[in-house]
Amino acid sequence: MKTRGNSMKLTFILVTMTAILLTLFPVSPFISTAEAASIVVDGDSSDWAGIPAISTNSGTARVLKASHDDVNLYLLVEGSGLSTTMGSFWLNTDGNASTGYQAYGWGTTGIEWLLENQSLYRYSGVGSSWNWDWSSTLSSSQYVRTSSTIEAAIPLSTLGLTVGSTVNIGYLDNNSNVNRLPAQNQSLPVYTINERSPGGNMIEFYPPELNDPLNNPFKGWAPSAKSTSYPQDHRLVYVGVTWKELEPTKGSYDFDAIEAANHFSYWQSRGVKVVLRFILDSPTGVPHRDIPDWLYNDMVSLGQSPGTAYQDATGGMGAGNNTGFSPNYSSDYLIARHKLAIEAIAAHYNTPDSPIAFVQIGSLGHWAEFHTWPYVGPNGESNYTGAFPPNSISNQYIQHYIDAFAAQEDHTQLLIRRSVELAKNNNKGLILGMYNDVFGDQPSFDSEWGWYTGTQNGYWDDIGQQQPNHANFWDTRVSGGEFYGGAYGMNAALTTGSGFNETLRQTELSKPSWLGPNAPASLSLGNPLQGNMNILKKRMGYHFVVNKAAYPQANNGSTLDVSIHVENKGVQHFPFNWPVEIQLRSGGTIVARQSTSADLRTWRTGMHTVSGSISTSTLPSGTYELAIAILDPSTNRPGVDFANTDRLADGAYKLGTWTK
């Protein structure tokens, strides 16, 4: 038996050696840890430290976590001002979202179990009927609730969960539409019941975060495609095409000239996509028409008024942008030819690697901005710069886009400036994104007549028609726009103080992914606005950060189970369904890979979990690199950067090493 003195000496030596080793060999992002949970349900969440959130949200319910041991599934909700009288966990335990109760407010859920306060119920209905069978009441050692913490322990055997099972989890605070985890309209996060043997250690890898804006596709700045000399990184360009440019000769569409003038080949070689707008009336400082001459002459020959030539004397259109020609949008001939032109554009660019990422439904009004303002001249003239058409006419133009592009959503998506009924209810079941051409200007944003107010509440338009809302369109489609007021407005919107504060406020509310063509891509690197530009660019669109990867330290079996936690720190989801892949590599070569079920279109702001099982049965013994990649379907190569270090040469991201 050791004496007390010998024990104290040994302790001192061990502590000293540990301190020396930590100094020489700092803690790495790889952590080997026994996976058996050691959670005590007592209202103290300190024992959850190190366990990543599977969902986050603003409001009262802010963090959702899950863990388990050999007996229980543990659930934690953290927040502020949580209800102490009503809260409910919703669990899909059979892995099938089409079976079970369809809980309101999320995506398809398929709930088998409901924990309402301390009472556990099993669903006995079909789809939407409210039929539940009481199962049990959790004891005080299984359920604790305060206004800031809710903990629960549910027996795995009761839920029918075993090793390899998955469970989708949601929490609803006091039956609120807003205070829930995950947020409204998101999919329930999935948690996997992994093997937890006492001696079975797991690798937990916490990749360092890269605190920089990323030059990723479908977000950021979208300057004019006419120039190829922009100091700032960007992955989008804006192309405004007039009808006269597109179809100079009747029935002949000059895509070669348009692509040459806008440097399509150059942009494609650099992975830059196009935001396209089709324009029938673009005011300048000289008399001109933006519809083709043959179209004008045909309308005259048919006895139809071709439109209105205007020269604004009110000054409302801005110096140098006051002269042009407003077509007669009610002409049935013009409508018929417009349909053919839109169909030609859609057909020409309907390829998996299409250069066009977004099409702004334009066509109508000055600059295709859905207005012919100013409507009243200096002497009281009506329709002073042309007549804007009523819904019965304008809807026909919008429908041309919907019909032509509805089947192309995997590579090209439609956006519209004004909230109209067709934006959410149309014959193709298509939901349109939206764009704000005066982003950053407060009155134009959420005053009574503002763009944001109209999208959320509906509005009376400029010609006295009541238009519906298109509230929260950003939950399923992209939001875009451009800075207001030319260079002056853009600089004001990016200047620290009230201008930039307003820009950030509008970013949080309307969730834009990109801004252009009035955007700061032409400003020099390191300019005085660079810091604010970087802040805005990071927050716009999506910004994916890998927080944690967990997998067995060693495995001689046939599969490698991997769980990866990714946080989206942007305001918007990724617009297209690009595959997320987990890979094993040896010497830089991919030797095993598994496409996951992750859908980036549902990865809104907050935490998301990627799970996968890579087949390893044919791999020889050895040590391999584990990696994650978001693949561009047109190249089958990594196409999106994570905000982490350890980026591999081809664009995938290392998540650690694994030994078979």
Topology of this structure?
Elements (H helix, E strand, L loop, with lengths): L3 H21 L5 E5 L20 E2 L4 E8 L3 E8 L7 E6 L20 E4 L2 E5 L8 E6 L5 E3 L3 E7 H4 L6 E8 L6 E2 L8 E3 L8 E5 L14 E2 L14 E7 H4 L8 H7 L2 H6 L3 E7 L13 H9 L5 E5 L11 E5 L4 H17 L7 E6 L29 H15 L7 E4 L16 E7 L2 H5 L4 H7 L1 E2 L5 E2 L11 E5 L2 H9 L3 H13 L3 E2 L14 H10 L4 E9 L6 E10 L11 E7 L2 E7 L10 E10 L7 E10 L4 E2 L14 E7 L1
Parallel strand pairs: 15-26, 16-17, 17-20, 20-21, 21-22, 22-25
Antiparallel strand pairs: 1-14, 2-3, 3-4, 4-10, 5-6, 5-11, 6-7, 7-8, 9-10, 11-12, 11-13, 14-27, 18-19, 23-24, 27-28, 28-31, 29-30, 29-32, 32-33, 32-34
Helix pairs in contact: 7-8
Structure overview:
The chain is an alpha+beta fold. It folds into three domains: 46-199, Immunoglobulin-like (Sandwich); 220-539, Alpha-Beta Barrel (TIM Barrel), CATH 3.20.20; 543-659, Sandwich (Immunoglobulin-like). It is 19% helix and 28% strand. The chain is built from 13 helices and 34 strands. Strands 5, 6, 7, 8, 11, 12 and 13 form a seven-stranded antiparallel beta sheet that branches. Strand 32 and strand 33 form a beta hairpin. Helix 7 packs parallel to helix 8. The two termini are 41 Å apart.
